[in-house]
Amino acid sequence: MEVIISSFIGKRLSVFHEKLTFHIAFPYLLCFKNSFFMLIFNLFLA
Hints:
Keywords: Membrane, Transmembrane, Transmembrane helix. By secondary structure, this protein is mostly helical. The protein has one domain. The chain is built from one helix and no strands. The relative contact order is 0.08.
C-alpha cells in the first residue's frame, strides 16, 4: 500500500517538475532565440 502511494506521489511530482521546468525554461529559450536572431541580424547589417 505504501509503495503504491509513494509511486503515485512520485509520478505526480515528476509531472509537476516537468511542467515547472518547461514553464521556467521556455521563456528563457524564447528570449535566447530572439537575442540570437538579433545578433545574426546585426552582424549581417554591419
